[in-house]
Design brief:
This protein is of the alpha/beta class. The protein is 30% helix and 24% strand. Strands 1, 12, 13, 14, 15, 16, 17, 18 and 19 form a nine-stranded mixed β-sheet that branches. It has an eight-stranded parallel beta barrel with strand order 2-3-4-5-6-9-10-11, surrounded by five helices. A two-stranded antiparallel sheet has the order 7-8.
Length: 396
């Protein structure tokens, strides 16, 4: 029985649109990620999962430890539900959430907030001026892990922290050390240009350029990150140094300065992670849409489908028509808000009410569209897991 038959049989009683998670694929992906991490713990990126029960399941697997959240309100909610060791990967300007953190001893013990400038510290001081009692807030210093060359004329990597060199990092760490009520416990450096950019894209020429950039970037970063960590450790007792992502696990863990890696997308293995040479995952999360029209020979129309992923606009951000194989978008309509025409030989065999299975381009954003993930094992739905949305929680 092929995957399409399995999924159709397992979900025969469900009415699409709905989303599923293939548990066997999830387990295989998790095991692969742990092997690639070679003994260093993997901190789970919650933005890639966005389902609290699934986060619990992943953290129960040996090799996964701690959470990397995307907002402070999310981290506070997770802590209130019993989650521990939560690092907020992005700075916050949420005064109410900061006050809640500082006033809650349990949350303050479990949550670490990321900063990358003295301006963040001043903002937090102002936001917390009237909080009594005020508990110590743990901080993580975010540094720029992007690749810059040609005198600054070329840059690859996410535009994150302004802290790039050893002197800047040491100065900010010293500033934190002098301020009462804060403690620097971690350092974060996310090399998006390696972890989040596939090195085996469809274009061979572009692939060679990507691999060259990643090789040069990794060579530069291992030295710079190591020097920054050594300098910061002179003024702070760091509990963790976090780096990497799904696409760079095996490369990042080789760095002595890095104590853990962050990853999450690899568990679901969305479409954007098909283009890496170093690992192969199994698609685990997908969604089904019903065929509702047959407007012309060789064409069917499904309900909905415009679940576009974030990032630069382009074909690579639309969901992939996955099963049955051989479907493609109409160039005039693409993935639509309320309907999506699909063409191709496979459309000839589809009838009203049949399912078309799609893979989202990115991981966790799928869960912002659905309140439930139906858990499939073999050809059976064995349970459900609410997404953040399903628990009535939205954080962005």
């Amino acid at each position: 029985m092929d995957d399409r038959q399995r999924y159709d049989r397992a979900t025969a009683s469900l009415e699409p649109p709905f989303a599923i998670l293939d548990l066997a694929a999830l387990r295989a992906n998790a095991e692969s990620m742990v092997r690639r991490a070679a003994g260093k713990p993997i901190r789970v990126a919650t933005k890639s999962i966005r389902s609290r029960p699934l986060l619990d399941q992943v953290l129960a697997i040996d090799g996964f430890q701690g959470l990397l959240a995307f907002t402070l309100p999310e981290a506070l909610w997770l802590a209130s539900q019993g989650c521990t060791d939560i690092v907020v990967a992005y700075p916050t300007a949420d005064r109410q959430a900061l006050a809640e953190l500082a006033a809650d001893a349990t949350a303050a013990r479990q949550i670490t907030v990321t900063v990358d400038s003295a301006e963040h510290l001043a903002y937090m001081d102002h936001a917390l001026a009237g909080v009594r009692p005020r508990h110590e807030i743990k901080l993580c210093l975010d540094i720029d892990a992007g690749f810059v060359t040609l005198g600054g004329r070329f840059r690859a990597g996410a535009l994150r922290s302004p802290v790039r060199d050893t002197a800047q990092a040491a100065e900010l760490a010293a500033d934190i050390a002098k301020r009462p009520g804060y403690r620097l416990t971690g350092l974060l450096a996310y090399e998006a240009q390696i972890a989040g950019v596939g090195d085996a894209p469809p274009s061979a020429l572009y692939g060679r350029a990507v691999r060259l950039m990643q090789t040069l970037s990794a060579r530069e970063l291992v030295l710079r990150r190591g020097r920054i960590v050594n300098a910061v450790r002179q003024v702070a007792d760091l509990e963790f140094v976090n780096g990497g992502g799904t696409g760079s696990i095996e490369r990042t863990v080789r760095e002595k300065a890095v104590t853990e890696v962050a990853a999450g997308s690899g568990l679901f293995h969305p479409r954007l992670f098909d283009f890496y040479r170093g690992f192969t995952g199994r698609p685990a999360a997908m969604f089904a849409l019903p065929v509702v029209r047959r407007p012309a020979p060789g064409t069917v129309t499904v309900l909905g489908g415009g679940y576009i992923a974030s990032g630069p606009a382009g074909h690579g951000r639309v969901p992939q028509p996955y099963l049955p194989a051989g479907l493609r978008y109409s160039p005039d309509e693409g993935a639509g808000e309320v309907q999506t025409p699909l063409t191709g030989q496979a459309a000839e065999d589809l009838r009203i009410g049949d399912r078309v299975w799609f893979r989202h381009a990115k991981a966790g954003e799928l869960c912002e569209r659905f309140d439930t993930l139906h858990l499939v094992d073999g050809d059976t739905v064995v349970g459900t897991a609410p997404t953040y949305r399903g628990e009535g929680m939205t954080f962005l």
